[in-house]
């Protein structure tokens, strides 16, 4: 197994090196791809140093990135804190499910990004509109997965809990939530993904700061080097937050052998 | 969970109650002016506007025409994603080296939301059709690739061994063993891909289009025509649902044909 | 005390028209501290009987009484040991056993004392802080039994508790259960399709027909067991070799075989 892993790493690194060489060749060396289409490595570097230092589109890269991160954190948190309880409740009570389901069926097919124009209409171009749309897009996966998580709890576990005379609050805290947590975490991963996609889109449509705004400005200025910087930043932010979630998941689900297999 | 499941009557009644509560609350907020009607038209306003838009144009075209433009780009993007993603996934499933090369690239790009490709799309294609198609492709491609890959990689080992024992050359192995075995996974991937593609379409059209439903919504937002914006949302939702339903039917039909379902 | 009564119990699943009749006129009286096993073909409804005493199902007609009172809901006075163990995978062995005690609002020192006793009884002391997935099937079922026992229930309900275990483990568990039952007797309702298990463990064995289930016959084991002094043999294979045992077992087999559709599982 170790040799397979390291072979993969070797090939991965070789590919990376190859791509970078290709990049150089296509842009700087042969000029096949001109600056207006895709930046050369040096153009990329220039953009990077610019935004890290002097700043671009009104602020430094750190400021833009942190602002976007803040919005995602807020939207994601609201979505999770409202969605999971609702999903758990719907999963537990068939009445609640029957009541809420039609509303869900109407809201669900609307792609999260389709809420952006409405959000801007209602809340303007500021942070509030973005947080609202992020909340919307992250809300649905959280509900659905929490719901499924509860529904998938095996009957004997529920019956054992009842047999032991467990009071309501303890039922939820010590049995329902832990039992549903593997699916809840799956929902969290989807919610996080949706949050980032929505944030970038919302900032592209209209913003005054943030990575999406950087992308937008760079596109209007016809500044490919900066577009690339923006895209890579988005990727890194997405990766970092996903890793963080993965770490939390591993800690919370240490007892769950099934997931490891 | 709590005891026995509900009777159909109870389910329908509760559902209607929920629906009425939703629509009622909405209408109430709008009619009483708690939220200005300009920003929250009543459900009836939205329905009326939808009927209007079926024949009278807004932002350059009627609703059906906008939908047609959107769908055209969508179709191109998804078909392209499938034509490249599925074969590539199958090949990756068979040729380890290819897998080792492509997977790291893929993993690296995975964290960049498809929508982040919009600026490059705008730069390369302006407001032409290439822009949205590219974004849709970016959204629809991963599931096609991943599902074809998984379908091929995780084929029942006995089938591969049987193929080898019969002296099957690579090309035939892929076409006559891997591909059929991977079909269920591929179909599932196509369905997810279609869904993601439709979602990416919306995002793309909000920014880099000159026609289509997303474009219509942005224009409506600019001139504070909230009802039109909502019509757009509903239309997108309905079409998305339709696509999913049709694909599920197709998936079911195919699975039945292959005896995977009763 | 811990008596169980089934009086003219019927059970129908599904709608009143076109439903499935699972149980037909079940009448059975189980005395306090009596160990009764119900055997029968698959699907005969024997598990349903247990579930009605547990409070997970209600009788369609007739009464199910524990201690003379009708059963309305599940509770720790009628502890259940499930075939699938039903342990909480995110809780350690100790925590699994402790939950029922916490629900009874017992103070911590009392709980610790009871848990220590249960761990010792089921030979689980060294695994107190393990998670279920780290234990074998047999050990997990021991935890489930400990969890039930620690509640000091008036009635112990065991639903094919050894069904998910391999043959060797099953035998060990049967021997342990007998030791436990003799030392710490209480009312037990034990469901199984394994005839030998029923004869070995129980005071009386009720034989059910296939669906709709009826009680066909009730055999008294205890008298024979005491007369023939089965308990003087500590190993199960020695008991199963005895003529009196074989006779009882064969009788039940023949009775079950008469039920068309009976398969030797």
What does this structure look like?
The complex is a heterotrimer of chains A (261), B (262) and C (265). In chain A, 80% of the residues lie in helices and 0% in strands. Chain A has 261 residues and is mostly helical. In chain A, α5 packs across α6 (127-151). Chain B starts with 7 loop residues before the first helix and ends in a 5-residue tail after the last helix. Chain C has 2 domains: 1-36 and 43-77 and 153-237, Rossmann fold, CATH 3.40.50; 87-152, no CATH class. Chain C has a 6-stranded mixed sheet, sandwiched between helices. In chain C, α2 crosses α3 and α6 packs across α9 (243-258). The chains are: A mainly alpha (261), B mainly alpha (262), C alpha/beta (265). Chains A and B meet through α1, α4, α5, α8 and α9 of A and α1, α4, α5, α8 and α9 of B.
Count of DSSP strands of chain B: 0
Count of DSSP-assigned helices of chain A: 11
Fill in the CATH topology of the largest domain in chain A: MetI-like fold
**Total domain count of chain A:** 2
Report the structural category of chain A.
Answer: mainly alpha
Class inferred from helices and paired strands of chain B: mainly alpha
How many whole angstroms does the radius of gyration of chain B measure?
A: 23 Å
Q: What fold name stands as the CATH topology of the largest domain in chain B?
A: MetI-like fold
For this structure, the quaternary state is heterotrimer
Number of helices of chain B: 10
Q: What is the percent of helical residues of chain B?
A: over 70%
Query: How would you name the CATH homologous superfamily of the largest domain in chain B?
Result: MetI-like
- Distance between the first and last residues' Cα of chain B: 28 Å
User: N-to-C SSE series of chain A?
Assistant: HHHHHHHHHHH
Strand content of chain A: under 5%
Q: Which CATH-level-2 architecture of the largest domain in chain A?
A: Orthogonal Bundle
Task: Pick out the low-confidence regions of chain B.
Answer: none
Low-confidence stretches of chain A: none
């Amino acid at each position: 197994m170790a040799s397979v892993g390291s072979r993969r790493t070797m090939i991965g690194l070789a590919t990376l090196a190859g791509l970078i060489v290709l990049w150089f060749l296509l842009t700087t060396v042969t000029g096949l791809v001109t600056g207006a289409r895709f930046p050369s490595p040096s153009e990329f570097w220039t953009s990077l140093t610019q935004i890290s230092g002097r700043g671009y589109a009104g602020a430094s890269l750190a400021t833009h990135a942190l602002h976007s991160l803040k919005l995602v954190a807020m939207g994601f948190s609201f979505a999770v804190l409202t969605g999971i309880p609702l999903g758990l409740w719907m999963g537990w009570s068939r009445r609640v499910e029957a009541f809420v389901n039609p509303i869900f069926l109407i809201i669900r097919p609307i792609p999260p990004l389709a809420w952006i124009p409405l959000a801007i209409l209602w809340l303007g171009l500021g942070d509030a509109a973005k947080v609202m749309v992020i909340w919307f897009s992250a809300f649905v996966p959280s509900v659905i997965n929490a719901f499924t998580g509860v529904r998938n709890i095996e009957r004997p576990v529920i019956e054992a809990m009842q047999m032991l005379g467990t009071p309501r609050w303890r039922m939820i805290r010590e049995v329902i939530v832990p039992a549903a947590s593997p699916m809840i975490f799956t929902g969290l991963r989807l919610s996080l993904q949706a949050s980032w996609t929505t944030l970038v889109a919302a900032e592209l449509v209209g913003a005054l700061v943030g990575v999406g705004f950087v992308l937008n400005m760079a596109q209007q200025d016809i500044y490919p080097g900066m577009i690339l910087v923006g895209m890579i930043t988005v990727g890194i932010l997405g990766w970092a937050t996903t890793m963080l979630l993965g770490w939390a998941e591993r800690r919370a689900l240490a007892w769950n052998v099934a997931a490891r297999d | 969970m709590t005891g026995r499941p509900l009777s159909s009557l109870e389910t329908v009644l509760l559902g209607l109650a929920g629906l009425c509560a939703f629509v009622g609350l909405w209408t109430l907020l709008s009619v009483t002016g708690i939220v200005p009607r300009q920003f929250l038209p009543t459900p009836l306003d939205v329905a009326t506007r939808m009927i209007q838009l079926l024949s009278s144009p807004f932002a350059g075209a009627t609703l059906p025409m906008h939908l047609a433009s959107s769908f055209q780009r969508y179709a191109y993007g998804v078909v392209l994603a499938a034509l490249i993603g599925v074969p590539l996934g199958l090949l990756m499933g068979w040729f380890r080296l290819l897998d080792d090369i492509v997977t790291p690239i893929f993993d690296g790009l995975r964290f960049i939301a498809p929508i982040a490709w919009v600026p490059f799309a705008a730069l390369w294609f302006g407001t032409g059709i290439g822009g949205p198609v590219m974004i849709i492709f970016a959204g629809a491609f991963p599931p096609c690739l991943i599902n074809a890959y998984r379908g091929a990689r995780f084929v029942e080992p006995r089938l591969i061994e049987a193929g080898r024992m019969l002296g099957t050359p690579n090309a035939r192995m892929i076409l006559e063993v891997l591909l059929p075995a991977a079909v269920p996974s591929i179909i599932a991937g196509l369905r997810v891909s279609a869904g993601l593609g439709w979602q990416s379409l919306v995002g793309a059209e909000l920014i880099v289009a000159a026609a289509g439903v997303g474009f219509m919504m942005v224009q409506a937002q600019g001139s504070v025509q909230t009802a039109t914006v909502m019509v757009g949302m509903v239309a997108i939702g309905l079409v998305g649902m339709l696509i999913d339903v049709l694909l599920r039917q197709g998936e079911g039909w195919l699975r039945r044909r292959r005896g995977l379902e009763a | 005390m811990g008596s169980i009564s089934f009086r003219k119990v019927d059970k129908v699943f599904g709608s009143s028209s076109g439903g499935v009749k699972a149980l037909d006129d079940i009448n059975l009286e189980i005395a306090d501290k009596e160990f009764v096993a119900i055997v029968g073909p698959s699907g005969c409804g024997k598990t349903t009987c247990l579930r009605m005493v547990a409070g997970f199902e209600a009788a369609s007609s007739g009464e199910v009484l524990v201690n003379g009172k009708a059963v309305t809901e599940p509770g720790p006075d009628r502890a259940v040991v499930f075939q699938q163990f039903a342990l909480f995978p995110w809780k350690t062995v100790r925590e699994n056993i402790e939950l029922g005690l916490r629900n009874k609002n017992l103070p911590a020192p009392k709980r610790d004392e009871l848990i220590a006793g249960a761990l010792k009884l089921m030979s689980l002391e060294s695994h107190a802080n393990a998670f279920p997935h780290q234990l074998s099937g047999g050990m997990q079922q021991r935890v489930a039994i400990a969890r039930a026992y620690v509640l000091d229930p008036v009635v112990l309900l065991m639903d094919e508790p050894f069904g998910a275990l391999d043959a060797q483990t099953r035998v060990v568990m049967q021997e342990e259960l007998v030791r436990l039952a003799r030392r710490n007797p209480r009312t037990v309702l034990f469901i199984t399709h394994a005839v030998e298990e029923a004869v070995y463990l129980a005071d009386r064995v009720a034989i059910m027909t296939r669906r709709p289930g009826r009680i066909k016959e009730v055999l008294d084991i205890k008298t024979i067991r005491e007369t023939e002094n089965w308990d003087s043999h500590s190993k199960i294979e020695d008991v199963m070799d005895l003529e009196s045992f074989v006779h009882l077992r064969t009788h039940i087999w023949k009775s079950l075989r008469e039920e068309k559709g009976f398969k030797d599982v």
